[in-house]
Amino acid sequence: MVRYPAMAIARPATLALIDEIEVVDLRGLRIGPGTFLTKAVGAPSVRLRGADAQRVAELWRSLPPGEQARCHIPPFGLRFYSGGHMLAQASICWRCNNIHGEASGEKLFYEFDASQKPARELLSLCEQATGHPAAE
Questions:
Q1: How far apart are CA 91 and CA 76, in angstroms?
Q2: pLDDT tens per residue, the chain (136 residues)?
Q3: Domain regions of the chain by residue span
Q4: Of 34, 62, 86, 122, whose CB has the highest number of CB atoms within 10 Å?
Q5: End-to-end Cα separation, the chain, in angstroms
Q6: Which is nearest to 47 in space by CA: 14, 17, 84, 12?
């Protein structure tokens, strides 16, 4: 298992209340650990508000811990907003079970179990928001 001891580790469960989420389509971008913040600027995205945004945030907060693999091939990224201010942003890889990004100015890294229901449902909602499957 790869560990990143120099990074502050923020857990998805600590996400504050949000009112909007941006689902970022990462198709065709070579996003690696720590590059989502710079490489996804200007990438296509869809904004979710209301019940859809709250459901994505709920699933994000409930991602179960797990073990990661060594890749990072994220099909989607998420940006969480409250009152027009970004609270957190991250790229999510369901192949290797990890998340890389930042939350409240701190680096975010989390290993999750992509086979569990919250993770599978979150992937499905990202696919619905962008209008295409993750493996396209």
A1: 6
A2: 333 333 344 689 989 999 999 999 999 899 988 899 899 999 999 999 999 999 999 999 999 999 888 788 899 999 999 999 999 999 999 999 999 999 988 899 999 999 999 999 999 999 999 999 997 5
A3: 12-130
A4: 122
A5: 28
A6: 84
Q: How far apart are CA 69 and CA 111, in angstroms?
A: 9
Residue with tokens 């073990």: 67
Q: How far apart are CA 81 and CA 25, in angstroms?
A: 17
Q: How far apart (Å, rounded) are the C-alpha atoms in residues 79 and 95?
A: 20
Specify the fold of 12-130.
Dna Ligase; domain 1 (3.30.1490)
CA distance 120 to 92: 12
